[in-house]
Amino acid sequence: MTAKTALITGITGQDGSYLSELLLDKGYTVHGVVRRASTFNTCRIDHLYRDPHDPDTRLFLHYGDLTDGSRMACLLDQVQPDEVYNLAAQSHVRVSFDEPEFTGDTTALGTTRLLEAIRMTGLPCRYYQASSSEMFGATPPPQHESTPFHPRSPYGVAKLYAYWITRNYREAYGLYAVNGILFNHESPRRGPTFVTRKVATAATRIKAGLQDVLYLGNLDARRDWGYAAEYVEAMWLMLQQEDPDDYVVATGTSYSVRDFVEYSFAHLDLDWRDHVRFDKRYLRPAEVDDLVGDASKAEQVLGWRPRVRAPELARLMVDAELNALSRNTGPTVPAVPSPAHTLASH
Ligand code: NAP
Ligand code: F7E
Asked: Which atom of ligand 2 is nearest to the CA of 132?
């Protein structure tokens, strides 16, 4: 057990929820940055939250936004974290073509705001940047730490900026700042509009007779899909090393979207061809065709190894949807509001 304190941006997202679980298990005090919204957006971490008046509480939530640099500086000063995990981003590739400016503001410049806040407050904290395999884009696989970058979307371009500004602050100011270059990682907590979750949810609903058709875009794209719960362990390991460095985190295997669809439907004894239809609205102006990560450096230096591959991931996600459907609630959406809806700053 540790007495360390961590600050997580993007705590309400898929990875933020798994990382919070991991750090709380290790004895950390965890502070999370939550965007103010007109609806509750804490459903992925509600199960971790306790009343802030409880003396044993080790999870605290604060309003903040990566577009607001002075708020970030203020929070750092208040929380005095040992480790900062920057997971916040406009993370949807297709949406980044619709909102390129907002994506750049949050995903790229937001990183500079946070790094600059760390530099200005002079905190001796360690910094993790959520970099992405989307930075490799059009460069053929396998992709590793020294593979040239060729991003194919405003999201990929924004992440590449964030990657380089993180390296720049490490080189220029001696910050302990690392890039985790993570390939696609999924789970039952994945956002509902990413392809794996969309497929798992629809296949389950089709099996239950609640819908008949699933509309998808490009089935030929290939991805290196891993399990998010395992990937957050690699994030933590990166910040426990003597020296800061950048690491690829991936399974080293590649499957097409069609493969993932087939595994998901087959797990429910369904033939996907009877239900999946093409809709061009899900195509991207430029696509990333094939991603396969070489994570040998993470294995050698961090001792990190993936266990779950795409076929098992598809089954695991469908099983979670079945479970949720039988309970009549989404896997990450609580049936009733919980105390997590009271933020620590209130
Ligand atoms: P996610 O589920 O989309 O979560 C993104 C988080 O960022 C959410 O908590 C979101 O808040 C928050 N956020 C968005 N804009 C913000 C802003 N302006 N200020 C503060 N917070 C903001 O993403 P994820 O799958 O957990 O991924 C975590 C990080 O890893 C992201 O940076 C993503 O780009 C990167 N990444 C993901 C993958 C992957 O396969 N999952 C692979 C490589 C890299 P709301 O809940 O309010 O929307
Ligand atoms: O698409 C194809 C689509 O949106 C995967 C983010 O976490 O991983 C993620 O980005 C593939 C693409 O994820 C649909 O064209 C077909 O080829 O699930 P996705 P992504 O774009 O790979 C990277 C590493 C990140 O960093 C990102 O933050 O599936 N596809 N039909 C579809 N995709 C979606 N979303 N919806 C469809 O209907």
From this structure: 26
Instruction: Please check whether residue 346 lies inside any domain of the structure.
Output: no
Does 239 reside within a domain? yes
Q: Work out how many domains the chain is built from and give that number.
A: 1
Ligand 2: residues within 6 Å at CB?
91, 93-94, 132-134, 183-184, 193-195, 198, 216-218, 221, 223, 257, 282, 284, 287
**Does residue 245 belong to any structural domain of this protein?**
yes
Closest by CA to 31, choosing from 60, 70, 68, 73, is 60
| 266-293 pLDDT per residue, tens | 999 999 999 999 999 999 999 999 999 9
Domain residues for the domain of 260 are 5-341
Half-sphere exposure of 67 (CA within 13 A, CB side): 9
Is residue 334, in this structure, part of any structural domain at all? yes
Its sign, for the CA torsion 267, 93, 214, 259, is negative
Neighbour count for residue 230 (Cβ, 10 Å): 18
Euclidean distance between CA atoms 246 and 228, whole angstroms:
19
Q: Would you place residue 329 in the very low, low, confident or very high pLDDT band (cuts 50, 70, 90)?
A: low
Domain holding 288: CATH number?
3.40.50.720
